[in-house]
Amino acid sequence: MERLQKVIANAGVTSRRKAEDLIKEGRVEVNGKKVTELGTKVTPNKDEVRVDGIPIDKEEPVYYVLYKPKQVISAVNDDKGRKVVTDFLPEVEQRIFPVGRLDYDTSGLLLLTNDGEFANLLTHPKNKVNKTYIVKVEGKPSKDALTQLARGIQLEDGKTAPAKVKFQSGNKKRNTSIIEITIHEGKNRQVRRMFEAIGHPVLKLKREKYGFLTLEGMEPGEARALKPIEVKKLRELAVT
């Protein structure tokens, strides 16, 4: 027997964390009875599990990389009617969802899948997959400020792990700078908060790399399926 949220996630309905929310919201039924307890265990392929009245079926796992444009929500739907990342993959029949998230005004590389186990593997705090961002900030951070970023910044929810930081260029006329930063954590709005902490607010933010994956050859709004070897390498990267 397995925990209900794991069965839902493995069926590709959503991530395990979101599956827990669905259970608590009373949107899950097991053998015709509503279940709201997170500790509930079921037997896959024997117990009938429904989410919002729809039976879950084990789908063939699929994996995509999307060049997320700005002003798009990292979700499968939005109650305010804003554009969401799955709008860019209308031909995909499986119930895919984003692996982690990028802020509404952040662009760049985002993974989508229907494989809950894969998503949990990549986003679990103990698994350190590097993510590289190109950041346009106000002013020109001093060397000491950049060293602070590299060593870790104390935020409200704890100190950030060491990061790789590289000054790329500056524009004296516009009083802006371009910085490259690589982190492996996924705190909410982490990069923006790190630069705010050193007094250089973010003007523009783009995720350029996720592990070994890049946006090479892609335009905003474009997506492609990951190759099996890329999926294998991501799994290996997450556990090394």
UniProtKB/TrEMBL annotation:
InterPro entries: PsdUridine_s_RsuA/RluB/E/F_cat (IPR042092), PsdUridine_synth_cat_dom_sf (IPR020103), PsdUridine_synth_RsuA/RluA (IPR006145), PsdUridine_synth_RsuA/RluB/E/F (IPR000748), PsdUridine_synth_RsuA/RluB_CS (IPR018496), RsuA_PseudoU_synthase (IPR050343), S4_RNA-bd (IPR002942), S4_RNA-bd_sf (IPR036986). NCBIfam families: pseudouridine synthase. Keywords: Isomerase, RNA-binding. One of its GO terms (molecular function) is isomerase activity. This is Pseudouridine synthase. It comes from the Bacteria. PANTHER family: PSEUDOURIDINE SYNTHASE FAMILY PROTEIN-RELATED (PTHR47683), RNA-BINDING S4 DOMAIN-CONTAINING PROTEIN (PTHR47683:SF2). The keyword Mitochondrion does not apply. It comes from Thalassorhabdus alkalitolerans. Residues 2-60 form the RNA-binding S4 domain. Gene3D superfamilies: Alpha-L RNA-binding motif, Pseudouridine synthase I, catalytic domain, N-terminal subdomain, RNA-binding S4 domain. Belongs to the pseudouridine synthase RsuA family. Its EC number is 5.4.99.-. PROSITE patterns: PSI_RSU (PS01149), S4 (PS50889).
